[in-house]
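Re: export button greyed out
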Amino acid sequence: MAKEKKVTFADIAKYTGFSKTTVSRFFNDRDSLTLENQKKIQDALDVLGYQENKLAKVLANGKSEFIGIIIPNLYLNYYAEMLELLLSCYDQYGYKFLVFRANSKEEVERAYIRELQAYKIEGLIVLSHTIPSQELAAFQIPTVAIEREAEDICSICVDNEEGGRMAAEHLIEDGCDDLIQVNTFFPQSSPAYGRITGFNQACHKKSRQPVLIQAEFSDTYESIQQKIAEIFEQIDEHYPKDHIKGVFLANDTYASMFVKQILRKYKEFPDTYKVIGFDNTRAAQECAVGLTTIAQPMKEMADQAMELLNLQMEMKKKRIPETLDKPVHIKISPSLVARETA
Amino acid sequence: MAKEKKVTFADIAKYTGFSKTTVSRFFNDRDSLTLENQKKIQDALDVLGYQENKLAKVLANGKSEFIGIIIPNLYLNYYAEMLELLLSCYDQYGYKFLVFRANSKEEVERAYIRELQAYKIEGLIVLSHTIPSQELAAFQIPTVAIEREAEDICSICVDNEEGGRMAAEHLIEDGCDDLIQVNTFFPQSSPAYGRITGFNQACHKKSRQPVLIQAEFSDTYESIQQKIAEIFEQIDEHYPKDHIKGVFLANDTYASMFVKQILRKYKEFPDTYKVIGFDNTRAAQECAVGLTTIAQPMKEMADQAMELLNLQMEMKKKRIPETLDKPVHIKISPSLVARETA
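Workaround output, generated via the alternate export path:
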């Protein structure tokens, strides 16, 4: 490996004929130079093979341009797609993303955030549910939560209650005899809890009795598939064959698995089942039968999350740092995408 | 936001009763202290609310513990799963991962790597195909490529030729009349090219004539699905109805889409089609019919990639930095996972 030579401001000044002050301005206040002079210096850097040391700059001005992203997993399409959308914001903002895959171990996640703090990250996007927002707020890093409990930090989420209502109303219009929701256990502080209340309210409004099946879903694909298969068997055995069973599931991945179980048993998708997923991820497109689902406007959510984070970051970087008076919470309306399953 | 107080080594020394030298050793050579004394200092840090400034340390010793990962996309399950496996190595190595989603724009990717270099990243894992390995080598960062052209850098890949052979032999044993491979266009330097030669060789060995259908697949899910639908129609119209058509596709995502087209047309999976995918990702499990596939041992590949990268990073950090004499290339054997489609 060739020896790396250190190119100094003096070298650049000598090569271009500019003063060292001018070269320094190129790095610290580029727009104060004419475009022509900027280009001259840029060309010199390329020719001389100058390597900028951003860390030294970060130490001086605190602007690391690092953003931490904490994501629970990548096997649920929702998280993989949201991560892809967030990473794609590099083009627009130039921020570099440090990604951590949370494994629900609180201590590891906490240690990781502390580490990020030591590296002077400027912002944090949290999709994991591990650490309460009160504790996240105490880290004093500009933070945005996406679809998780966020009492003490800024957040973006879909209007889950509205989503639950939409699903129930659609299943009732579809002539379903039974209205069943399949979901995980979560505290009432979780935004997804709104789906349960929304679904139930819409049913009660039409004097219908909703059924809620809650289950623990662990975090491997195989075990989730196994659990969904059990729930399908339970529903299929319990309800009369000729009833139209309307089933609203926690996400498209689960809904897709449920449809797969129906197809395994009945070969074709029968008129006696109506299935609705949530998110409108690629799991919905990949489903063997076009999956009806409640769509989260994910691109809009990713964009708004970045905007809200950037706002806080900019405020913190002011000569006299500012913070928001209280956390901003943005709720975005979902929409129903009707395909073949309902 | 409360004012952050700066806790100094002197504060820690005063609180614990240790000398400043001992406190300094805690940060720079922790193992030289007894476990008991380490704990005393750690407790003091927690009580005093000490914030380590890792950047200052990195500037001093060059060990940023940052690794860059460049990934083409997250909509192919292969990349999402490989990224998840790599990120999970944080527990073992403590490295922090800066993730960049390549969008095939060479200039953006190049600029990003230069930026990472300015942040003193210690290693790079490249899954994108954008920049030639010769150019990547010139960055002089310890690098490992996974499943991509890697003449001038270390690499991990599956034995693609062996995979192609396995697929052909399985389809021939299955009594297929037609042996068709569906793949993308790529240069012979790409490891995946081995699948084409392996498939063809195995066919010729049994005096059978393979057919290769190559197509441009763009990088959105919808357009790939559209292309696969066209290819299915083309095959289904061209070959006699009663022929057993053996189709080997570039990855499980494409194979899953192909199976979906078959099911749309024939309702049940017919005896006249045999389909094999590649990778054994969750796309294979999600497929409406159990998808037969050539499995890449992804966990093993991720582990070996990290090991090979770590080796190079350790060599570079020695008092007299060392590099490998030449790039190490590791090839891992695939295996056939037989399910329902072949």
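The first strand of chain B starts at residue 66 and ends at 71. The button fix ships in the next patch.
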